[in-house]
Design brief:
Length: 305
């Protein structure tokens, strides 16, 4: 099968290569999925799990990519809940070969059924962005109607999901980003926008929840905006500054079939829009990972036409 592999962490995306690899086999509780579309996050090449397994052993050449939409082609021993020929989407294990390939082996519990009226490209754009937003807002942030959310990177793949889901439950959303991101953030539902390059972040006042996708100085300054009982939720590692009278939580997204089902249901009924920045074929994927201009949104690779 065709697959994209990485062998040299220092090379970054420039070190990606399209090669031939053996098709994966389904282990216990696995399924093999014929990948139709795959999502890719550029920071994956900085994740330790891309290069080593859980025992810290080198696992290169490894296949990146952890989001997929496709069709089940084989079941491992003991696998239940899915069937051969079923359309699925989901999030694969961090320390196993990923989805930038024609086939992938993945634990069945990490996948959810993909309705027939949802395109594979859309399905592949949902797992990391949708689950990160869902878990950060509702599991870790305990968001409630009427609260104020500061959503950093509101025009990006995760930030736009944060904005839409927060608005759906009745929160007031203040988006942030660069000046060029303003209209896109507002189009996805942000009610206010802060240009982090030219506006004073502190002028937003107190908020109930900060969803931090940036960290660094912005994370430190954001911590001071949390009102008593509020929460700073981060996906960029432990925060250097903590709210004086609130919580600071950093987390790694996990696959959850029930949450995936809720997310795709919202896509089908128009409550949630995807944010796809670029689409490329697998044969052209390596070039697409080294764009000449900034891409705001999810990168999707169409593995099958």
């Amino acid at each position: 099968m065709k697959a994209i592999v990485v062998t040299d962490q220092a090379a970054g995306t420039a070190g990606m290569r399209l090669v031939e690899r053996p098709e994966p086999q389904a282990a216990i509780n696995d399924v093999v999925v014929q990948v139709h579309a795959s999502g890719f996050v550029g920071t994956e090449l900085a994740w330790p799990s891309t290069w080593t397994d859980r025992l810290n052993r080198d696992r290169t050449p490894s296949i990146p990519g952890h989001e997929l939409a496709g069709v089940v082609t084989a079941l491992g021993y003991g696998t239940t809940g899915l069937s051969v020929g079923q359309r699925v989407f989901g999030l694969t294990d961090w320390t196993r070969d990923g989805t930038l390939a024609e086939y992938v082996a993945v634990e069945a519990r990490n996948l959810a059924p993909l309705p027939g009226d949802v395109d594979f490209t859309v399905g592949a754009s949902l797992p990391i962005s949708g689950l990160t937003a869902w878990q950060g807002l509702f599991e870790h942030g305990r968001l409630q109607a009427g609260q104020i959310v500061l959503a950093h990177g509101a025009a990006g793949a995760v930030g736009s999901m944060v904005t839409q889901l927060a608005r759906e439950v009745g929160a007031h959303v203040i988006g942030t980003g660069r000046a060029a991101d303003r209209q896109k953030a507002l189009d996805f539902g942000a009610q206010e926008f802060v240009d982090l390059e030219n506006d004073a972040l502190e002028d937003v006042g107190s908020v109930d929840l900060v969803f931090d996708l940036i960290g660094g100085d912005i994370g430190k300054r954001s911590a001071r905006l949390i009102r008593a009982g509020g929460t700073l939720v981060s996906i960029v590692g432990p925060t250097e500054a903590r709210p004086g009278y609130g919580l600071a939580i950093d987390f790694v997204v996990e696959s959850d079939r029930g949450q995936l089902t809720e997310i795709v249901r919202r896509v089908r009924d128009g409550r949630l829009r995807t944010n796809i920045g670029s689409i490329a074929a697998l044969d052209d994927a390596v070039a697409s990972f080294n764009p000449t201009k900034r891409i705001n949104g999810k990168t999707i690779i169409r593995v099958r036409p």
